[in-house]
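Priority: low. Protein: Glucose-methanol-choline oxidoreductase N-terminal domain-containing protein. Input follows.
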Amino acid sequence: MVIMRLITTAVYISIKDPGIRAQSRSDPLHPRRGHRPHPDYVIAGAGTAGLVVANRLSEDPNVSVVVIEPGSDQRTNPNVTNPDAFLQAFGTDLDWSYPVAPQPGAGGQSFVLHQGRAWGGSSAINGMAYIRGHKAQIDAWETLGNPGWNWDALLHYALKSENYTIPNDSQLAAGATYDPAYHGFEGPVHTGYPLSLSNGSASPVIIAAWESLLLPHNPDLNGGNTHGFSIGPLTVEAATNLRSDAASAYYSPIEARPNLSILRGTVKRVVWDKKMKKNNRPGAGKEDLLVARGVEYITDKGETRILSAAKEVILSAGSVRTPLIIEGSGIGNPKLLKKLGIRSEVALPGVGENYLDKASHMIGFAGSLGPTGGAYHAFATMDDIFGDSVSDVAESALAKLPQWAEAAVGDAAWTGLDVAAIEKLMRIQHRLLFRQGVPAAEILVGSIPGADDISVLFSQYWPLVSFSRGSVHLGSVDAIDSPVIDPRLFLADFDVDVSIAAGRLAQGFWLSDTARPFVTAPILPGEDLLPNDATAEQWEAFTTTSVIPHSHGLGSASMMARELGGVVDPELRIYGTANVRVVDASVIPLHISGHMVATIYAVAERAADLIKGKI
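Result:
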């Protein structure tokens, strides 16, 4: 998402809740025969997942759905629709631009985290890469206490959501390949390749260079095995060359449904009913369940309102904002809630913890290759980046897991987290990396036009499965828009080692016998900081001072067993509640060796069937 940056009417509704004014094009939720005075479902967030769920639930005309979203309709904004201009949205009103806490592991630097603030959420401003991830990682979700959540189950929903366009002859000549068995052709989300991707001078050089480095070609990165190099599809409608985001895919085509509306506002907390519900779930113990009456939200004019939900509240505000709503509702670490002046309703110390992001870097060279019109993805395993020393690296990492788990927990008396549980998660990650061949690093390579007929040849890279874990929490009960975000980049020193090894491979690509004839000189960060023969000290200095968060955060309301620090159960209900679910990136418990949006769409499609009782 950061290549260029590093190189150079909402629809209002009328309801019967007190104090809410009629501001709609019609009166879709006005009580009528057989219809409740309140919406059946209230969804917090019209983002990537929220609009999927809203669409699928409102397929039943007898079900009413209201989505509350602080962003607005941007369907005519070229900074959203134009796939070649997506970075123009960064730092605008479409981007939350959250400040990130200073990172000790990155020289004390502070950063900005990019998250979408529009209908469609981050799918409206992201880099559009559509790569689902590695099968073994998704299958590992079941080992965390989530029966039924595995690759095969999610593939069904991934195909349901996708509308894939087969690459044209020029794109095939540029290196695009695919297997139709791993694509859907009738779903709402268009995937394919932008018109700018076409055969040119760069394509054969890039393909030959990766082959010379013995990285295998992958015929389809969406087939459950991401190892190797290929050109991945984007969430782009090929016929129009426009971005396909959650708003254009899941909302615009069905916005005339009278039982579905988007309300402009910011959900602050869940409002609980005075009654409790007996917990009859297997193995649940004697804990009674909180019953949500609805949500409290702030209108765009700063007024506080309450919207009731007849059936369920669904939180789909994303990996940053969802944990804030949960904490504001009295669920989380009791000591933190007390400090914030919030009454503790359910003790769930995992809320806002297990926040996983990636540490991204870039190097660049001046050169003479023509533009690629896109980026070529390479997914490298531990064997690829560490070679003959991989066994020693695996042994060393295994020995350090207890140390990293303790660092992730911090002061256990304060956080309430279990070191043994965190270590178990890390052991699963270790096994995925060193025994199951899950890719450990991703490298994007490409060429863009520069000045004076000189091209900029770039490699952007990042570890895919870091052992560092961060957090996202409320800083104040009245500051829902000002979260405390601390990804704790490089909390585990191993992540520095993987970044350096990936960086050496990224640099080695352009210095290979195949690519080097087209390279003039290093320009990013420059030969003085990272020469072609950089020492270990120079690599470490560059790695720790030139990193940025990848804005791919997940896990802050993880779907896993409660004793592991989980926040939601396999039906995506928040533990201790009867009718509040979470459906967004925050429930994904482990890193993905791919790109997030494809997995989020699949998770949301499956979640909709869970809510409808089809699973």
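The first strand starts at residue 41 and ends at 44. The radius of gyration is 24 Å.
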